[in-house]
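User: Before I run my own analysis I want an independent prediction to cross-check against. Here's the chain; please return only the structure tokens and, at the end, one sentence I can use as a sanity check.
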Amino acid sequence: MSSSPLARIGRRLYDAPYLLLSLTALFWSSNIVLGRYVAGHIPPVTLACVRWSVATLIILPFAWRQLRADWRIILHNIPFLVVLGAAGIGCYNAMSYYGLQYTQALNGLLVQSISPLLIALWSLVLFRDRLSRGQTIGILISLLGVTVIISRGDLDVLLHLKPNAGDMWILAALVIYSFYAAILRIRPPLSALSFLAVIMGFGALLLIPAAIWEAQSGLTLTFNAETIAVLLYVSIFPALIAYLFFNRGVELVGANRAAPFFHLMPVFGSALAIVFLGEAFEWFHGLGYALVIAGIITATRAKGGARTDPAPEM
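Assistant: Structure tokens:
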């Protein structure tokens, strides 16, 4: 019996890592823009907690059968899964949203650009992976493209772009998330849905005490149509779908090959500003886009870096 066209498209997408990683960058760039947009209106920890709680509730009905099949593996690997939930879900998102309370989306996108280097560093420390020359060149080319976009082609903009406390929070969050991205290779052998449901659930649970403390300090969530729309969007697209895509992308090509796709975030962020905020398309957009795409192509086509010993398995 032949499968439906929708199912065939889904299978092709699931086996297309670079498309999955590109869509991930699109969803995450919109998350940064929205995170900055709601700064001061939705408390950061509450935003992260509600986001992952809603995402967990959405995925549970779809993952329930796989969770039942994987429950022995889950019980055997609870400590490691809690670490993944804390690093990739809880800490990273709460710290990023907190940082966006005190910095601009422009700064947040620029700080995000160092993610490939942080992932490469964690891969070197944990697994002795080294970037190949081609991967390094590709990352540097795409980083140059990011710089052109962020600076708007004006070096003076970069010279006067001062880091602040918000940037430091986002940087610390990225160090933690890069650790998560690097150790995905040794994740327990769970199905994609059950793995995501478990780490999202742990991440949401770990955020609850901090969200309660935040509410008791006077930072409360006001429900209105705009707030509900934002919460639903960040729960479904940058959370549930993007993490499913990112985890699959890393599974297919590895963390170091997936990392350059973080440089697409400023590309998509500026494109969103052009489409939805009416900003004009300038020459530096075109040059930056071309450099980022050229860098990603160079990095993904390069041979993998050296590994001095095999990665551990679980």
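Sanity check: The chain has one domain: 21-301.
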